[in-house]
């Protein structure tokens, strides 16, 4: 049985207050009067206090902006990708080092890299092999452009590797620089995205090694809400990646999440009462509230998700691993042998609309 052995996380050096980002948006976009009144309401209701970025611009006065400048110098896709390759690699290494504190990196047999905010060939997987001194024969897999649910998809692939080879030690690293794709636009999708997204990285070690504590991977289950394809999307443009994110997404998740949970539990002959911990991807405050209502949960059940949202915002794929890490820290803070069994239901959402879930057991 494969298990999550460790999770390490990392964020860029620039931590921005949500209110400072709001003032940046007001300066950068010069919105009309309606949007000027709407922005403070959206930011106040976001449930986010701070977010991290590879840029200092969001907390600086306009004359000190370095990357974004003004409408006459909107960064090109090429400029954004050049910065991504350098910054994402360094951030990934920091998360990996935090993850592998008790593991020799030379023992890693498989590397799975996950991102939807940068793409190139050679990619981040090659850069990591070179900079970390990994074996040139390491098995590499890249998961690109899946969005916020991609970490769970990566766990599914890691689990398959471990089931096929009992000696496998799989390193998953999810790194997203969402703020790299800030668009100087008052389009409703750009405005909504500006309230939520942030930068971060999470690395996760999965193996079938016995006599090592961890969260056992019990069951994966995914489901598509195809009626929502137009409500969440990620498109390439000459000035970066364009995010489509409608306010209909929480409603769709509210309609579909109960069936997803029931179908997943049925495969393990479990009921909702058997779930002790809920790791819900904090794609936004409205999404967490929709899950609460649909599954008859309360805010305390989702406390770790709300806390990650408050401190970090939505970092896309690493975010669910930030939540699971918080749970692992709490669960294993006491004596491993004496602690009771815990069942974690983890779920993340992304374009499609895709709902990807995993049940973990301690």
Give your account of this protein's structure:
The protein is an alpha+beta fold and 362 residues long. The chain has helices at residues 18-29, 33-44, 77-99, 124-132, 150-164, 188-194, 249-267, 285-295, 303-312, 319-331, and strands at residues 3-10, 14-17, 50-53, 110-115, 139-144, 169-177, 199-207, 215-224, 232-237, 240-245, 277-280, 343-350, 354-361. The protein has ten helices and 13 strands. The strands form three sheets. The protein has a nine-stranded mixed beta sheet with strand order 5-4-6-7-1-8-13-12-11, with helices on both faces. A two-stranded antiparallel sheet has the order 2-3. Strands 9-10 form a two-stranded antiparallel sheet. It is globular, with a radius of gyration of 20 Å. Helix 4 links the parallel strand 4 (110-115) and strand 5 (139-144).
List the helices and strands and how they pair.
Layout: E1 3-10, E2 14-17, H1 18-29, H2 33-44, E3 50-53, H3 77-99, E4 110-115, H4 124-132, E5 139-144, H5 150-164, E6 169-177, H6 188-194, E7 199-207, E8 215-224, E9 232-237, E10 240-245, H7 249-267, E11 277-280, H8 285-295, H9 303-312, H10 319-331, E12 343-350, E13 354-361
Parallel strand pairs: 4-5, 4-6, 11-12
Antiparallel strand pairs: 1-7, 1-8, 2-3, 6-7, 8-13, 9-10, 12-13
């Amino acid at each position: 049985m494969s298990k999550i052995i460790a999770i390490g996380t990392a964020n860029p050096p620039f931590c921005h207050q949500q209110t400072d980002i709001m003032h940046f948006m007001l300066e950068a976009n010069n919105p009309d009067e309606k949007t000027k009144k709407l922005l403070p309401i959206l930011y106040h209701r976001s449930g986010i206090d701070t977010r991290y970025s590879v840029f200092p611009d969001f907390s600086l006065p306009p004359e000190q902006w370095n990357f974004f400048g003004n409408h006459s110098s909107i960064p090109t896709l090429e400029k954004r990708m050049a910065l991504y390759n350098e910054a994402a690699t360094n951030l990934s290494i920091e998360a990996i080092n935090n993850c592998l504190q008790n593991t020799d990196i030379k023992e890693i047999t498989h590397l799975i890299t996950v991102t939807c905010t940068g793409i190139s060939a050679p990619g981040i997987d090659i850069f990591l092999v070179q900079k970390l001194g990994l074996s040139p024969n390491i098995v590499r897999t890249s998961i690109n452009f899946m969005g916020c649910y991609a970490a769970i998809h990566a766990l599914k692939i890691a689990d398959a590797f471990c089931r096929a080879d009992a000696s496998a030690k799989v390193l998953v690293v999810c790194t997203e620089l969402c703020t790299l794709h800030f668009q100087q636009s008052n389009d409703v999708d750009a405005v909504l995205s500006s309230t939520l997204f942030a930068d971060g990285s999470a690395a996760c070690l999965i193996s079938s090694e016995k006599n090592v504590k961890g969260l056992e991977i019990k069951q994966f289950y995914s489901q598509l809400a195809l009626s929502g394809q137009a409500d969440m999307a990620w498109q390439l443009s000459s000035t970066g990646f364009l995010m489509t994110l409608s306010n209909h997404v929480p409603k769709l998740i509210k309609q579909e999440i109960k069936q997803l949970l029931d179908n997943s539990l049925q495969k393990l002959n479990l009921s909702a009462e058997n779930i002790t911990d809920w790791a819900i991807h904090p794609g936004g405050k409205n999404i967490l509230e929709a899950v609460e209502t649909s599954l008859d949960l309360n805010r305390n059940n989702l406390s770790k998700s709300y806390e990650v949202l408050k401190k970090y915002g939505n970092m896309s794929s690493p975010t669910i691993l930030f939540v699971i890490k918080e749970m692992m820290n709490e669960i294993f803070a006491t004596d491993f042998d004496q602690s009771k069994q815990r069942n974690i239901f983890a779920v993340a959402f992304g374009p499609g609309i895709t709902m990807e879930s995993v049940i973990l057991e301690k």
